[in-house]
Design goal:
Layout (H helix, E strand, L loop, with lengths): L3 H16 L20 E4 L2 E4 L7 E7 L4 H17 L4 E7 L4 H10 L5 E4 L4 H6 L6 E5 L5 E6 L6 H12 L4
Parallel strand pairs: 3-4, 4-5
Antiparallel strand pairs: 1-2, 1-5, 3-6, 6-7
Length: 172
């Protein structure tokens, strides 16, 4: 288990990355058209592998309990799952907290009506080369990246929903 010092160091690095002063990961971000890296993580109902969602459009979100914008994105992701789940959308959110208790406390106050996976080591975030939190990746039914987005605010909602509906081939 990481020490308090290493947790604070990781948080400081994320804050610096979000401010643009330090890239969180040195590699270039994923690009549209590239294959979405598969992962095998733990979820509340058992193992979660991205490849199990092949054939669906996946909105993959990376989040942490200390992330302020994540509190705004969860109600929106609940809405997207409810609105477009029957058309093939699967919202999948990967928690990156080192302590499971932090994630549980967050989810108690901001419930998720979509699939949650846990990655305390952050290996999936490294695979996806995220730059800050929250970060999302829209993945097509063929397993290819359609778009990548960092951050979340009220202004991003309409564009993210447009990307989802375009991927699903449905009207908003």
């Amino acid at each position: 288990m990481p020490s308090t010092t290493s947790r604070w160091r990781r948080r400081a690095l994320c804050i610096l990355a979000l401010s643009g002063l330090l890239p969180l990961v040195q590699a270039a971000p994923l690009e549209a058209g590239s294959a979405a890296p598969d992962f095998n993580l733990t979820g509340a109902q058992g193992p979660i592998r991205l490849s199990d969602y092949r054939g669906k459009t996946v909105y993959l979100d990376f989040w942490a309990s200390w992330c302020g914008p994540c509190k705004q994105s969860f109600p929106w992701m609940n809405e997207m799952q409810a609105r477009y789940g029957a058309q093939g959308l699967q919202v999948l959110a990967v928690n990156l907290d080192a302590k499971a208790e932090d994630a549980r406390n967050f989810l108690a106050s901001v419930p998720a009506q979509f699939t949650i996976a846990y990655d305390p080591a952050g290996s999936s975030a490294q695979l996806y080369r995220i730059k800050g939190m929250p970060s999302s990746v829209l993945i097509g039914p063929d397993g290819k990246v359609l778009s990548v987005h960092a951050g979340f605010n009220q202004g991003a909602r309409a564009e993210l929903e447009r990307q989802i509906t375009t991927a699903l081939g449905v009207s908003p």
